[in-house]
Specification:
By secondary structure, the protein is α+β, with helices and mostly antiparallel strands. Helix content is about 40%, strand content about 25%. It is elongated, with a radius of gyration of 13 Å.
Length: about 70
């Protein structure tokens, strides 16, 4: 099995609503949340990793990253 590793620099936007911090990578349309900004950031990164892995497995990663 091959391993692919790469790094991405993505702008993230954070907001707070009803005591929850919401994080978003607008370029990927990936959103997550947490009780604190640090937790929201960790959850957002994990959500982006799962999203990227899913796109790679479905062979649509190139298409998604070009959008």
């Amino acid at each position: 099995m091959a391993t692919v590793e790469f790094k991405m620099n993505l702008p993230a936007v954070f907001s707070q609503k009803d005591g929850v911090v919401i994080g978003c990578f607008p370029n990927l349309d990936v959103v997550s949340q947490g009780r604190t900004r640090d937790e929201a950031e960790r959850n957002l990164i994990e959500a982006a990793q799962v999203f990227i892995e899913s796109c790679f497995e479905r062979n649509v990663l190139d298409e998604v990253l070009k959008a």
